[in-house]
Design goal:
Length: 422
């Protein structure tokens, strides 16, 4: 399968190219209100060159300094000079040698991005993740907005091979003074109740310190530390104080200039038989299996089968206003609980954002979604042509993904085809 990483912009350009609505080039000059490509095919001496060829099309600068106005509508074109007059003046023009895209046939980059993300939302990947009471406990969500306010340190997400234990991202906490820390979002707990706290960590410098913090009374409940360049498991069971109703988990380093990496921060209620799934589990069918295994076993694929839980239920969480699900186990929680589940890819936002979903299938889905948008916007005869192209794309997608050529009915997008799970 074609799973090489692709950027958001590459996918947008491929969809436009599939619809023969993309031209690309390199500028030779630029100003606040115009861009010049004095090269073939934009500059030509042909007497019958069409000065209206690009009028109304969208011009998008793809490299170098991003102009203030990007994208822009082309309002005039001079074939003899290769000059594109743009609709709005940019206080900051593009670089004189920037690359650019021209989107034709009524396509806009906004619609193309929408089409790509509509397709991305239909793509899923198999994911092994610990169940935890902490938001972003697996540390795989981009950024640190799900965590609390960092103290005496800088917190970022990293993806380098040396800083990853499992998954796509890990937390990096770099101290500006001793005992800097990143707290989790506050978690509601029951007083005088037992909980299990575990995390994977490494400390290139200093000593990693895992802290259970009583947010109600502003006091440490318990902590454990380790000084190790290699990944180590930190963890302990603890009982909340009699007047504790909220806790946070603090990921800390004791050294003044210490640096720690963290992954899979797990907080579980000991003795409970139910626990809420991550919020991305929105359908019971996403859950493939449940495993009960030590934190250090998560990467040992050959060992997973013997940790499978033979019986479990996915039930609605009636106490959750967001309508998410919770896991119901046949026996009480005494060790980490994992799920293997289908997870949706995250939406793409910036041109440089990447995705590793099956490239060919994603490009076909996105092209079909773009056609669907055009069908809904185009007049009768033009819509008819888009519908025919949509049917051809859907047949190609079905053959690529399922090895068969189904009967395709024009109607709601992707009618009769299940969502792909490459």
């Amino acid at each position: 399968m074609a799973v090489a990483s692709r950027t958001f912009l590459q996918l947008v350009e491929k969809v436009a190219d599939n619809l023969q609505a993309l031209e690309q080039g390199t500028l030779t000059a630029a100003s606040s209100g115009s861009s010049t490509a004095a090269n073939f095919p934009y500059k030509t001496n042909l007497a019958n060159a069409d000065a209206n060829k690009y009028v109304g099309c969208q011009f998008y600068t793809t490299s170098g300094t991003a102009p203030t106005q990007n994208p822009q509508e082309i309002t005039a074109y001079a074939p003899s000079t290769g000059v594109f007059t743009l609709g709005l003046a940019s206080a900051t023009p593009p670089d004189a040698t920037s690359t650019f895209d021209i989107f034709k046939k009524g396509l806009t980059i906004a619609d193309l991005r929408k089409a790509v993300n509509n397709a991305v939302r239909k793509m899923q990947y198999k994911y092994l993740v610990p169940v935890t009471m902490l938001v972003d406990g697996d540390c795989d969500t981009s950024g640190v907005a799900s965590w609390g306010t960092v103290s005496n340190a800088t917190a970022t997400k990293v993806s380098g091979a040396a800083t990853l234990w499992r998954g796509a991202l890990a937390l990096n906490i770099a101290n500006s003074s001793a005992n800097g820390y990143l707290p989790s979002a506050a978690v509601n707990v029951h007083p005088s109740s037992a909980y299990l706290l575990l995390a994977i960590t490494r400390a290139p410098t200093g000593t990693s310190n895992l802290i259970a913090w009583d947010s109600t009374n502003s006091a440490e409940i318990e902590s454990e530390s380790v000084a190790s360049y290699d990944w180590q498991t930190l963890g302990f069971a603890f009982t909340t104080p009699a007047t504790c109703y909220q806790i946070t988990v603090r990921l800390s380093n004791t050294h003044a200039s210490g640096t720690s990496n963290w992954d899979d921060v797990i907080l579980l209620p000991l003795g409970a038989r139910e626990i809420r799934f991550p919020d991305w589990v929105t359908k019971p069918g996403q859950v493939i299996r449940v495993l009960r295994m030590p934190l250090s076993t998560a990467e040992e694929a050959d060992e997973l089968t013997r940790y499978s839980c033979p019986s479990f239920n996915v039930v609605p969480d009636m106490n959750n206003p967001n309508g998410m699900f919770k896991l119901k186990l046949p026996s009480s929680i005494q060790e980490p609980v994992w799920i293997e589940a289908w997870r949706n890819y995250a939406d793409l936002s910036l041109d440089a954002d990447t995705i590793t979903a099956d490239r060919h299938i994603l490009e076909l889905w996105a092209t079909a979604e773009m056609l669907n948008l055009l069908i809904n916007k185009a007049p009768g005869e033009e819509a008819k042509a888009w519908k025919e192209e949509w049917k051809r794309i859907m047949v190609r997608l079905a053959i690529t993904k399922y090895g068969t050529e189904p009967e395709i009915k024009v109607g709601s997008a992707f009618e009769g085809l299940p969502g792909p799970r490459p």
